[in-house]
Structures are given as structure tokens and as C-alpha cells.
Amino acid sequence: MKRLFGNIGWLLGGRGINAVLSLVYLALATRTLGLDGFGYFALVVALGQTVTGLANFQTWQFVVRWGSGEDGPGEATGFAIALDLMSVALGAVLAAALVWSAQFWLPLPDDLLWVAFGYCLVSLLSIRTTPLGLLRLRFAYGAATAAEAVQPVVRALGAVLAVFFMPTVLGFVLAWAAAEVAVAATLWVVAGLRERIDLSRISLTRIPRAHPGAWRFVWATNMSGSLNVGGKQVLILLVGAIGGEGFAGGFRVASQLGQALVQLAQTVSKAIYPELVHAADAAHEMARRMANIALVGGVLAVSVALLFGREGLVLIAGPEFRVVYWAMVILAIAGAIELVGASLESLLVSAGRAGTAFAVRAVPTLLSLLLLEIAMDWNGLKGAAFTVLGSSALSVIGFWVAIISLQQITITVKAKDEPTP
Fold first, then answer.
1. pTM over 0.90
2. 57 and 166 share a domain?
3. In which domain, by residue range, is 275 found?
4. Are residues 178 and 161 in the same domain?
5. pLDDT, tens only, 144-197
6. Claim to verify: residue 243 and residue 392 sit in the same structural domain
7. Cα 190 from Cα 132, distance rounded (Å)
8. Would you say residue 418 lies in a domain?
9. Is 136 inside a domain boundary?
10. To the nearest whole percent, how much of the chain has pLDDT over 70?
């Protein structure tokens, strides 16, 4: 637990830097572009993150899971890089299809379609989960945090330059693209200095031969990651498709401020997963303690959103974004629920139940997307936020039920294995 809290401390330090700088570039983008212009920007970024999220494999988990043996992470890293290359190829095809079809369902001007396609390609080429896996495998969270801090710094600097030299959607998209390239390059350099990366070991077959259930684990974690994207970026695209660019911009602001706890949940998940893999016997107790701590943090964060959220929105984004206050509060509650569930989901994945974790996440997420238009017709952005809240609540309840079932199975197996007196 001491090492776990130390790792979380490093990750939270990085999140803290990111949070402060994100307020800077969010304020610059919203005040420069306005509600509709920021909506166009939000749709372009959401397209790029959707493509990357759907095509990307959670390769850091593979490096941690299969790279901790006596032979080192060489084979696991080669497998992860091969999957990254496959992600780029598949993602490019998906990006072309989405951007071409965007003219029929997204409120994006024609001149921004090529900008969106270019951002998709840059995002794909900047996939960086493999070097993150190498650093987490060695518990080098300080180095990873320092490297990841490059992204918000470059974004903030790019946003300042955009305000003065190119105060358009294209200018801010270029700033975001530069940040993606910079952080990916930094992480690969830092990981390469700590661990030798042997390109001759790149292979899609060696790890599956040594671990027969590898592909099942790969697809389960990929689909879980895709569902996380579906709950965020795809949702922004659909909000824009249903309500227009103004709704997309408002929901992006509400989500970025209200769902900061979801990023915190991902931070906890990334820190606790390697510990659960290495300490399987104490995994349940570790996850329980983290969930209890997360509950307290979630309640405090929601209280802050309720008390100071309206003034914060006006201060950061401007008076025209005041209307998204309640949507932000609802999303903050959803983030608090996700924070509690982060350790539970990691526990399932570390126990080899990635497929179960995916199934538990899949049904509520798909249900929320199907109900989105009805919810928005009922209550606009607040309705969209309620679909996220319902999805998060159902998912975390499902994780809890699945873990209870897993514990009962473990107890039954141990009882059978005990010798009869």
C-alpha cells in the first residue's frame, strides 16, 4: 500500500499540473472561439480521440501482465508495438470513413473535414500506451509523470500562440496536434533510456503462443477501452449531431470540468493495476481500501462542484457557458461514482476477468447511447448528462456484483481443495 500511494501521488501530481494548465487552454479556447466555434473545435478533437480510442489497444496492460517474468519485457514489448502498428493501419481506415460520412451527420463545415482527418492521423501516430507500460512495469511513475506533463505544457503554449497568431479552430487544433506528437516522442525517449527496446522482437504471434488466452485478453481490454471512449468522445459527437455545434461545445466544457473525477479514476486504475497483478493474494483488500478512500474524495469533489461550479464556469469559459452548470454537476456525480468503481474494475481485469469487466461496462454504455436522443429531447444537456450518470452507476454496481461472485467462487474452490479431516 505504501508503494501504491506513492505511485498514485506521482500520478496525481501529473494530473494536478494537467488540471491547472487545462483551465488555461480551456479558457483561451472558449473565449477566443465562442460557443459555436468551440463546438466545432470540440467535434474535431472528439473525432480524433474517437478514432484513436476505438483503434488503440491497451498495450500498457500487456507489458505489465506479460513483461514481469524472468525473461523481461522484450517479448511483451514487441507484441505491444505490433498491436500499435495494427492500430495505426485500422485507425486510418476508420478515420477516413468517419470523416467522409461526417458531412451527413455532423454540423462541421466542409473546410474543417480535412482538418479533422489530419488530426485523426496525428493522434494515431502519437499512440503511447506501450512506453507507458514499460515505465509502469518498473514502477517509474515519477519519470512517466514528468514525460506526460509535456502534453498540457505544449497545449497551453500552443493555445497562447493560437490566440495571437491564428485565433481560429485550425489554430487550436494545430496546438492540440503538436501536444500529441510532443508527449508521445518524450515518452518513447524516456522509456527507451530505461529499457532496451528490441525492434527485432516485434511480433503478433510469440506472446499468444506462450500464453494461450492472450488474444482473448487483448480483445477484451480493447473493447473495454473502446467503451470508455464511447462513453465520452462518441457521446460528444452524438450530442453535436443531435443538438448542433453549440450543444457539443457546451457539453465538452461541462464534461471537462465535471468529469475531472473520471480522469482521477483512470489515474487510480493505472496505479493500482500493476500492484494487483504483483500482489494477487492481497488484491481484494487493496481494492476495498482504495474504494473507501475514493468514496470520500468523490463526495468532497461533488460538494465543490455544487458550491463553486457556476462561478467557475463564468470565470473560465465566460458568461455564455453558465447554462451548462447543472450538466456539469450531474457529470461530477457520475465522475464520483466512477472514482469508487475504478479499483473494482482493475481488480476484475487483474484477476483475468477482462471479459467480465467489458460485459459489465458494455450494456450500460450502449443503453446510454441509445437513450441519448430521448434524454436530450426531454432535458437538453442535462438529459445527456443523466445518461452518463446512469451508465456509470449501473457499471459500478455490476463490478461490485461480479467481484462478490468471484469471491464466492474462490472460497468454494479453496474449500474443495482442503483435505477432508
1. no
2. yes
3. 213-412
4. yes
5. 888 888 999 999 999 999 999 999 999 999 999 999 999 999 999 999 998 888
6. yes
7. 9
8. no
9. yes
10. 81
User: Grid coordinates standing for 1?
Assistant: 500500500
Question: What does the alpha-carbon distance between residue 285 and residue 253 come to, in Å, rounded to a whole number?
Answer: 37
3-state helix, strand, coil in the chain (%, to 5): 90, 0, 10
Question: Cβ distance 47 to 57 under 8 Å?
Answer: no
Position 408 in a domain: yes
C-alpha grid cell, residue 263: 480522469
Examine the domain organization and report whether 110 and 3 are in the same domain.
yes
What the block records as the C-alpha cell of 215 is: 488474444
Query: Do residues 80 and 130 make contact, with C-beta atoms less than 8 angstroms apart?
Result: yes
- pLDDT for 85 equals 95
Q: How far apart are CA 340 and CA 336, in angstroms?
A: 7
Identify whether the C-beta of residue 187 lies closer than 8 Å to the C-beta of residue 132. Answer: yes
What is the C-alpha to C-alpha distance for residues 61 and 63, in angstroms, rounded to an integer? 5
In the chain, how many domains are there?
2
Residue range 303-330, pLDDT digits in tens: 878 888 888 888 888 888 888 999 999 9
- DSSP class of residue 282 equals G
Q: Are residues 94 and 192 in the same domain?
A: yes
* 149-169 residues labelled b (16+ CB within 10 A) or e (exposed): bbbbebbbbbbeebbeeeebb
| Residues 267, 196 share a domain | no
Q: How many CA atoms lie within 13 A of 417 on its CB side?
A: 6
In this structure, is residue 123 part of a structural domain?
A: yes
Alpha-carbon distance of 204 to 87, in angstroms, equals 13
Residues 21 and 97 in one domain: yes
Spatial contact of 155 and 25, defined as CB atoms under 8 Å apart: yes
Backbone angle region of 380, left / alpha / beta, with phi > 0 → left and psi within -120 to 50 → alpha: left
The values of phi and psi at residue 324, to 5°, are: -95, 10
Altogether, the residues listed in the chain come to a count of 421
Q: CA–CA separation, 342 vs 344, rounded Å?
A: 5
